[in-house]
Write a structure and sequence with these properties.
The protein is an alpha/beta fold. The protein folds into two domains: about 260 residues, Rossmann fold (3-Layer(aba) Sandwich); about 190 residues, Rossmann fold, CATH 3.40.50. The protein contains 18 helices and 13 strands. The chain has a seven-stranded parallel sheet, with helices on both faces. Strands 10-9-8-11-12-13 form a six-stranded parallel sheet, with helices on both faces. Helix 17 crosses helix 18. The two termini are about 15 Å apart. The N terminus is likely disordered. The chain binds uridine-5'-diphosphate. The site of uridine-5'-diphosphate has 17 residues, from helix 1, helix 14 and helix 15.
Length: about 475
């Protein structure tokens, strides 16, 4: 039975801690979960954010909606500079940061005025699950990616025993019990090189995920029915992962009620419905100079309208003020700052598009009626934001588990096109880009994908009900343990 604290009517509300790894892509879904717990269940959350000396994107995240029920504590910055060198890969870095943060998490939990009733950790925080054991409270993993990613992660230790040599050299797909097999070139980054430390860290993560009371996944039945069924029914999978898997998605940030505060709102308002392609590669996606040039010309050749969140290949030195003041311009300074933009591009696309430097209000842009397509790196947050806005995609995976997300979107859900060869393997040429953009924005195929995206939007809205039920189950079980 769902307890009174869960529907928000009790003064003795449940209090959960949610641990977030550094980076906008991690903090955003954590805050969305905390806000959802407050709004729908009256649950109080303390979000512990692991920080580093430089994590500027955290400032871009909206503050919590419910300040009474959601508290954010930024932990003192962790310093891993003596543990890494320039070759240290992202997963290793994140794991090291989260390992260094364990004592900070423990102190923060011990110092809390209100006893916590449960600990939730995001994907990279699984080493902190031990703290829940120390404080004798239930512990949950919050998987901010797909159920398919979760399946691969928990099954990877078995693949590690079964397969010799590099996964990418395997002749056939990698089999995961009850799930869609994974094309070797689509594996997550840490599986690309079994000799690297980040592979060993990933294996450990997969094992740690299994020592919890349940796993929340930001997905729903209509997106991943097969994989979710495998967790419930497939004996081989259940032998690997015993704790229940709860689909609680799709959780996405709501669009700001005030809408877009800056560019490109005025411009978007003037464009026909469904006519604009939004181009953005997440919080960390950066293209090579050569690829950016091909993309620029591909957009120009397609003759479609666009909004492009543009980021220099290396950070620093760019004069944002120029862009913000002018929206777009065609000046020599602009080429100097964004030197990879080919000369002539700005003039040739003068009335066709808007460039946004470094960051755009993605949720608000995707929700705008004039947006008809999204060229995306397929980060899972971006993917869900696109789906819940009913916008079909050009899948341009770059890192992490994005190649699997792209495969899901193209092969299972039918809401995306993608380049013939992975963009991480080969520069995608302007003609192919033109073709993909035209397919999505103009052709019958694009129309079918748009219809499919609209259907998914509808079923994602319906899934909210089931996700609410899943969340109630988790909270009931936390409540029962509290008593
Ligand atoms: N985002 C945004 N504006 C940008 C780039 C990213 O608002 O210009 C947000 C985006 O809406 C999403 C998150 O940052 O919520 C990125 O998460 P995702 O999982 O898509 O990718 P990651 O950045 O983690 O690779």
């Amino acid at each position: 039975m769902v307890g009174s604290a869960i529907d928000g009517s009790s003064s003795s509300k449940l209090h959960v801690i949610i641990l977030s790894s550094p980076g906008a892509g991690h903090l955003i879904p954590v805050l969305v979960l905390a806000n959802r717990l407050a709004a729908e269940h009256g649950v109080r959350s303390t979000v512990l954010v692991v920080t580093t000396a430089i994590s500027p994107e955290s400032n871009l995240v909206n503050p919590p909606r419910d300040e009474e029920l959601v508290e954010i504590i930024r932990l003192p910055p962790v310093d891993i500079s003596n543990l890494v060198d320039p070759s240290t890969k992202v997963v290793t870095q994140l794991r090291l940061m989260m390992r260094e943060a364990v004592p900070l998490v423990r102190s923060a939990v011990a110092a809390m005025d209100r006893r916590a009733d449960a600990l939730f950790v995001d994907l990279f925080g699984s080493e902190s699950l031990q703290i829940a054991v120390e404080f004798n409270i239930p512990k949950y993993v919050y998987c901010t990616s797909t159920a398919w990613f979760l399946a691969l992660s928990v099954y990877c230790p078995i693949l590690d025993e079964k397969i010799e040599g590099q996964y990418v050299d395997e002749p056939g797909h990698l089999e995961i019990p009850g799930c869609k097999p994974v094309r070797p070139e689509d594996v997550v980054d840490p599986m690309l090189d079994r000799g690297d430390q980040q592979y060993r860290e990933y294996l450990r993560m997969g094992k740690e995920f299994t020592f919890c009371d349940g796993i929340l996944v930001n997905t729903c039945e209509d997106l991943e029915a097969k994989t979710l069924r495998a967790f419930r029914e497939n004996e081989a999978m259940k032998a690997v992962l015993e704790p229940p898997v709860y689909p609680i998605g799709p959780l996405t940030r709501p669009a700001e009620p005030s809408g877009l505060k800056i560019e490109p709102m005025d411009w978007l308002n003037k464009q026909p419905n469904g006519s604009v392609l939004f181009v953005s590669f997440g919080s960390g996606g950066v293209l090579s100079a050569e690829q950016a040039t091909e993309l620029a010309w591909g957009l120009q050749l397609s003759q479609q309208r666009f909004v492009w969140v543009i980021r220099p290949p290396t950070e620093g030195g760019a004069d944002d003020a120029f862009f913000t003041a002018n929206g777009r311009g065609s000046s020599a300074e602009l080429y100097d700052h964004y030197y990879y933009l080919p000369r002539g591009f700005l003039d040739k696309t003068k009335n066709m598009g808007i460039l946004l430097p470094k960051w755009g209000q993605q949720v608000e842009i995707l929700a705008h009626p004039s947006i008809g397509g999204f060229m995306s790196h397929c980060g899972w947050n971006s993917t869900l934001e696109s789906i819940t806005s009913g916008v079909p995609m050009i899948a341009w995976p770059l890192y992490a588990e994005q190649r699997m997300n792209a495969a899901l979107l193209v092969e299972e859900l039918g809401v995306a096109v993608r380049p013939e060869v992975l963009p991480t393997k080969k520069v995608v040429g302007r003609e192919e880009i033109e073709r993909m953009v035209r397919t999505l924005m103009e052709h019958k195929d694009g129309e079918a994908m748009r219809d499919r995206a609209q259907q998914l939007k509808t079923s994602a809205t319906k899934a909210t009900n089931m996700s609410h039920q899943s969340m109630c189950k988790i909270l009931s079980s936390i409540e029962a343990k509290k008593k």
